[in-house]
Structures are given as structure tokens and as C-alpha cells.
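Reference record
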Amino acid sequence: MEFFQVLKERQSIREFAPNAIEDGDLEEILRAANMAPSAGNLQAYAIYVVTKSDYKSALSKAALEQPFVASAPVVLVFCAYPARSEWKYGRRGRRLYAIQDATIACTFAMLAATALGLACVWVGAFNESAVHQVIGAPSGNVPVAVLPIGYGAERPPRSSRISLDDLIHVI
């Protein structure tokens, strides 16, 4: 899919078909996330690939009881890895750059999923400590985004966007 078409096609999908994602497609999504830019090229993030039903159910509960998290064939959890950035950038690396690295990687994964004809939704509403416990992340890794991915079983109307006049400020 052409890049600008990917941007137009991407939307938040919360109903997934039960079809499994092909291993090659998941690998392409993960490769895309790995290509994301990061502060100092440190890639201060970790990605947890969740496919087991009991773990997805636990993530759904940790995501404030959002059932679609459990219904997706694959759920990616993006965690900031602050220690990987802190040694070079200090406090700013720990508190900001690692978060940015994880969110950019999640964005690349989301766009890659769309390009492959898959559906996903960015989930930011969750109990951080509960997600941390479900995925068994090392101490210090911070869950930043949960990305359920699958084949869409819905096609909701497009959300409106803020006009560029209200969004852009030329200085």
C-alpha cells in the first residue's frame, strides 16, 4: 500500500475477526517497529508479543476491562526501557526519550499493520503495574502502549480531524 494511502486507511478498530495473523505479517510488523528512529539510536524500548489467550485476557482486564484487547489474535505491548537511554542522556533520557522511543516504535507497528491490511487500535488506558505484571517485564521497564492487532470485523465511520488552521501555528 502506498504510504499516504496507509495514513488515510488507518483507523482505530476494536472488533477483530478470529483469524490468526500470518507469522510473516507479524514479523514484518516487528521489523517495521525495529526501524523506528530513536534518541541516539539507543532503541530504549522493549516489545512484548502476547498471543496466549490467558495472557490476553489478563491484559484486557489490566486495560480497564476493554474486551477487544483479549479478542485480537496478537497484542503487542510497548515498554519504555529508561535505563538504556539514561546512561547517555540522563534524566531527560529516562523520563522522555525512552517514552518517545517506545511510542514511535508503536506508531511504526501500527502503520505496518495497516499497510498489511490488518486492523489495530492504540490502547493507552490501562493499569501500568497490572500490565507490567502480566507481561513479566523487568523492573524499570514501563508499559507505554498496548496494540491489539488482527483482521478487522468492523468498519466504523471515520473520526473527524481538527482543521489545519486550528492545528498549525506558523512562527
